Amino acid sequence: MLPAHPGDQPDRPGHAGLAELEAREISAWFGERQVLDRVSLTMPAGGITALIGPSGCGKSTFLRILNRMHELVPSAQLAGEVLLDGVDLYDPEFRLTAARRAIGMVFQKPNPFPAMSIQENVLAGLKLTGTRAGRAEKDELVESCLTRAGLWTEVRDRLDAPGGGLSGGQQQRLCIARSLAIRPRVLLMDEPCSALDPTSTRVIEETMLDLAREVTIVIVTHNMQQAARVSDTCAFFLASHGTPGVIVEHGDTYAMFNAPQDQRTNDYVNGRFG
Ligand SMILES: Nc1ncnc2c1ncn2[C@@H]1O[C@H](COP(=O)(O)OP(=O)(O)O)[C@@H](O)[C@H]1O
Ligand SMILES: [Mg+2]
After folding, report:
1. Ligand 1, closest atom to CA 54?
2. What pLDDT digit, counting tens, does each position of 64-97 carry?
3. Residue 66 belongs to domain with CATH number
4. In a domain? residue 16
5. Which ligand is nearest to the Cα of residue 54, counting in written order?
6. Bridge partners of 44?
7. Nearest CA, atom 21, ligand 1
8. Which ligand does the CA of 29 lie closest to?
9. Which domain holds residue 178?
10. SUPFAM superfamilies recorded for this chain (predicted)?
11. 135-148 and 118-129 are packed helices; what angle lies between their axes, rounded to 10 degrees?
């Protein structure tokens, strides 16, 4: 068993417990240019929230604000609050490493360390977070993370092979396993399937549905079928005519797709623009 960390719940040893993520009045700028305007969204604990909308409306920026990656961009500014189970992520008391640890990220292009073995890839995050673990614990963690990422049966016989030798879809699941190893409470996924074939996409979607029982998921997707298949709640972002991005409509995914309140949502989910 790995050492517990703050937030671990006694009734679920080894798990940090399901957490709600709430963005309040988030605005963002790159230099003088405002790209998000007072975006508020609650991402329910243990749910899958999909962020949809045309390119350039600020979805990736919003996602990066949710795990404090936005502040790494020179010239980037932000206003508003991000609350993880009611605790402000941007409070000076909340350490950056704690924020990154609690809120993991999977990117569009799978980015395993190509020369590192599959096993080392899964464990890579532990070094960054300074978590120590013995050999047996590590083996257990590698198996459990690869299993939850839906990759274990495909790689169990070649854990020492380089991560770069896997297919694109396998590499993406390896990245998911790597994120899981540090026990995030939230997993952010920025178009995780857009570089993958339909079969790999389906496997990742199944993995997400399984994972949602233990981690809150926020996914950006341009694939409306995917949003409809995997998400419980959905938010439609739009930045019209050079204005900053806003959320036009959000709510239950089924309702958004079948009875949207706003004409622009209706047009977008039915593929009429974007
Ligand atoms: N590092 C950056 N520097 C300057 N402008 C940026 C940067 N990243 C994104 N932008 C701008 O912010 C706006 C929102 O981008 P982004 O969040 O990537 O949108 P989306 O993910 O919805 O396509 C775009 O106009 C984009 O050009
Ligand atoms: Mg993006």
Report:
1. 22
2. 999 999 988 999 999 999 999 999 999 988 888 8
3. 3.40.50.300
4. no
5. 1
6. none
7. 60
8. 1
9. 21-269
10. P-loop containing nucleoside triphosphate hydrolases
11. 110
User: What are the pLDDT digits (tens) for 146-191?
Assistant: 999 999 999 999 999 999 999 999 999 999 999 999 999 999 999 9
- Give the residue from 93, 104, 99, 88 showing the smallest Cα distance to 25: 88
pTM of this prediction exceeds 0.70: yes
120 C-beta neighbours (distance < 10 Å), count: 18
Number of domains observed in the structure of the chain: 1
Measured distance CA(192)–CA(150) in Å, rounded: 15
Q: Report the interhelical angle of 135-148 vs 168-181 (nearest 10°).
A: 130
Among 36, 60, 220, name the best residue to mutate to test ligand 1's pocket (greatest count of ligand atoms within 8 A of Cβ): 60
Instruction: State if residue 56 touches ligand 1 by the CB under 6 angstroms criterion.
Output: yes
6 in a structural domain = no
| 10 is a domain residue | no
In single-letter form, the type of residue at position 247 comes to I
